[in-house]
């Protein structure tokens, strides 16, 4: 049985182009998992095995890989850096115990770094930092360290200093051991020698070493007192304190190097072993009841506990359906029967495999702490709990954001419909942020996602991976409706002509809800004028109408409904009568409550060279953008703005034109805001025209 203290479940995450996948490749080379290192720019990286990933040079899916370093087992997840795929990052962080944040030595803390860092903070994942690409033009290790403090609000603990910079970067000084590592130009990680610290760095090394020890001993009062009295702590004590502070998220050990040139990666691997937590050193996963509320119990990380595992990713590859699982408690064995507590169904575990990107090793068993894949599970989706049927339980669920953009697609021939149906079924299982609906009137299939690139990739997969010839419509914004005025009203549903009658009277209040609350229902009826057993029917009636608003038929958000009185008939009242009363009440009153159209606003983060700032800001203003912040950096300016999604289609092309191809941007959903009247009128007119056209067909 493997000693759990030797396990490290880690993610590697960063902004696009910070060199995260290359760093993973170097780790796999160093740990002996691959013999020829793949390069991202050649489209040969091991963890980027989808055709779309290799072409675009970005990581889309989180590839899981197992490797070993200094007797420790690493389960590594290489996560995507593009904002349209943050759901993959969130999903990965959910099952990890630690992480390596990779930052570009010249680009520094870039937009997606902030999003990933925020997710990692929310998931309370301990991290070490690797400032990569120090051989790049404009690289500056200590500037990036400063940005980690100022932009991320984090506390970096500098563990090494670079020897040389840009094209003169040759190695690093390990502050703890006072050893200088210098690599030759062969590009081989093992071709280094330990030399004396360069004379012009001695004072700087001592200054940063002192800061490091001062930060570390704050974790131990006795050590701190001894240090203040002039006693140097032992190496063992310093490392113990660094480990304690890292796991407590008090600070983040920070390293540097060049993954592409194979310089400095070994020290990052040593830091994963020395400072990141094992599965037993993080808070155990909470268990929840059927409603998702915490029960107060946890899934203790022990092989002696009943089986508790979380399916965190579904993937269909050339070998069949793979369900990626993090085992939290107990043991998972080939041939055993497990319960899916979400569906209430049991399944037998056939084959289990340990993944190495697109390859696999067969397993007979897995234990608490393992991340493995089960082959051929039938009814499992992302976020489902798999457990021992004798000890049913539910782990805390994953919550995924609602899509903000959609496109209509239709196959060009009948044969394509069947192929597309099968493909979409697999794609939905793989990606919970990807939704699909069928327009009942037009028969078109509507794909919904988190951004333009997200849907571009999905269409690409349908066309090339599954061979479906498609017509693709224009992207559509997910407009919504809400109300601005409170209203008090009454409605009676009555049907008493022949047969059993129907009667339900409700007195109700409707008012605008808090942003983000969606649908809220409450009942304050006293005295039994509406019997309690009919309250759920009233709630169901109101809720069923939220899909179609009074302005243009868009779904409704953030409205509170209160049932405060009413009336019933001893014979003719029923649940269906009160449900129909609520539906009628919605139709009667919503148009009187100041309904308005609201649109998704995106948090946009643009990087531009300084000489193009005026053009970029002017363009964002023309797109109805609200500039929130502007920060000058060494290589350019970052502009943060809130911009309506409808104005952002095709923005990357415009930005590249304005900045001669040097601008970058990312965006993520922020919130909904009311549309200006001029925009609202156009959207409503277009939607009503679209519905009229469909009605003719």
Descriptive report:
With 697 residues, this protein is an alpha+beta fold. The chain is 27% helix and 32% strand. The chain has 16 helices and 38 strands. Strands 18-17-23-14-15-22-19-20 form an eight-stranded antiparallel sheet. The protein has a seven-stranded mixed sheet with strand order 2-3-1-4-5-11-6, with helices on both faces. Strands 25, 26, 27, 28 and 29 form a five-stranded antiparallel sheet that branches. Helix 3 packs parallel to helix 4, helix 6 crosses helix 8 (235-247) and helix 12 (535-544) crosses helix 13. The protein is globular and about 100 Å long. The chain starts with 6 loop residues before the first strand and ends with a helix. Mean pLDDT is 85; it is low at 33-50 and 52-62.
Largest sheet: 8 strands, antiparallel
Structural class by SSE content = alpha+beta
Indicate the CATH architecture of the largest domain: 3-Layer(aba) Sandwich
Strand fraction: 25-35%
Distance between the termini: 66 Å
Q: What percent of the residues sit in helical stretches (DSSP H or I)?
A: 25-40%
**How are the strands of the largest sheet arranged?**
18-17-23-14-15-22-19-20
């Amino acid at each position: 049985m493997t000693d759990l203290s030797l396990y490290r479940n880690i993610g590697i995450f960063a902004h696009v182009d910070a060199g995260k996948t290359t760093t993973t490749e170097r780790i796999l080379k160093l740990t002996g998992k691959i013999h020829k290192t793949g390069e991202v720019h050649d489209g040969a990286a091991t963890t980027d095995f989808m055709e779309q990933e290799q072409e675009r040079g970005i990581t889309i899916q989180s590839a899981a890989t197992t490797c070993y370093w200094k007797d420790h087992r690493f389960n590594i997840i290489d996560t995507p850096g593009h904002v349209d795929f943050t759901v993959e990052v969130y999903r990965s962080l959910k099952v990890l115990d630690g992480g390596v944040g990779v930052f570009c030595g010249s680009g520094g803390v870039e937009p997606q770094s902030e999003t990933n860092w925020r997710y990692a903070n929310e998931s309370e994942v301990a991290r070490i930092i690797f400032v990569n690409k120090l051989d790049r033009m404009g690289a500056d290790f200590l500037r990036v360290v400063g940005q980690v403090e100022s932009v991320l609000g984090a506390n970096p603990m500098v563990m090494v200093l670079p020897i040389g910079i840009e094209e003169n970067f040759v190695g690093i000084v390990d502050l703890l051991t006072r050893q200088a590592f210098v690599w030759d130009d062969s590009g081989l990680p093992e071709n280094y020698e330990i030399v004396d610290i360069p004379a012009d760095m001695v004072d700087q090394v001592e200054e940063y070493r002192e800061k490091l020890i001062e930060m570390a001993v704050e974790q131990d009062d006795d050590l701190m007192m001894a240090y203040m009295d002039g006693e140097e702590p032992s190496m063992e004590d310093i490392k113990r304190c660094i480990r304690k502070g890292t796991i407590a998220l008090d600070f983040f050990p920070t390293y540097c190097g060049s993954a592409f040139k194979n310089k400095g990666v070994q020290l990052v691997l040593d830091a994963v072993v020395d400072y990141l937590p094992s599965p037993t050193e993080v808070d155990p996963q909470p268990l929840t009841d059927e409603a998702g509320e915490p029960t107060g119990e946890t899934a203790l990380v022990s092989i002696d506990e009943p089986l508790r595992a979380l399916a965190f990713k579904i993937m269909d590859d050339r070998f069949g359906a793979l369900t990626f699982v993090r085992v939290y408690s107990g043991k998972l064995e080939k041939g055993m029967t497990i319960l899916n507590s979400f569906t209430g169904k049991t399944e037998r575990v056939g084959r289990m495999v340990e993944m190495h990107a697109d390859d696999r090793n067969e397993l007979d068993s897995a234990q608490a702490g393992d991340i493995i894949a089960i082959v051929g599970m039938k009814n499992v989706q992302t976020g489902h709990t798999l457990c021992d049927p004798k000890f049913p339980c539910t782990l805390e669920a994953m919550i995924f954001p609602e899509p903000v953009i959609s496109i209509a697609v239709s196959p060009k021939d009948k044969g394509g419909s069947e192929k597309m149906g099968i493909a979409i079924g697999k794609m939905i299982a793989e990606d919970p942020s990807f939704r699909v609906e069928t327009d009942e009137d037009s028969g078109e299939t509507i794909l919904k996602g988190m951004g333009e690139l997200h849907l571009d990739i999905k269409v690409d997969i349908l066309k090339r991976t599954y061979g479906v010839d498609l017509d693709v419509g224009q992207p559509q914004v997910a407009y919504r409706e809400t109300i601005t005025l409170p209203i008090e009203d009454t409605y009676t549903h009555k049907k008493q002509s022949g047969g059993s009658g129907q009667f339900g009277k409700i007195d109700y209040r409707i008012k605008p809800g808090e942003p983000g609350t969606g649908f809220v229902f409450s009942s304050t009826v006293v005295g039994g004028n509406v019997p309690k057993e009919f309250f759920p029917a009233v709630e169901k009636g109101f809720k069923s109408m939220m899909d179609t608003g009074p302005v243009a038929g868009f779904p409704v958000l953030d409205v509170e409904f209160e049932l405060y009185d009413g009336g019933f008939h001893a014979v003719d009242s029923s649940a269906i009568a009160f449900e129909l009363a609520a539906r009628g009440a919605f139709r009667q009153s919503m148009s009187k409550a100041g309904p308005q159209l609201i649109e998704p606003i995106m948090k946009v983060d643009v990087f531009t060279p300084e000489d193009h700032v005026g053009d970029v800001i002017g363009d964002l203003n023309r797109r109805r953008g609200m500039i929130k912040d502007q920060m000058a950096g060494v290589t350019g300016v970052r502009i943060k703005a809130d911009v309506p999604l409808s104005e952002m289609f095709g923005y990357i092309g415009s930005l590249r034109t304005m900045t001669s191809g040097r601008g970058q941007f990312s965006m993520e959903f922020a919130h909904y805001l009311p549309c200006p009247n001029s925009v609202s009128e156009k959207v409503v007119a277009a939607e009503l025209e679209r519905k009229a056209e469909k009605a003719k067909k």
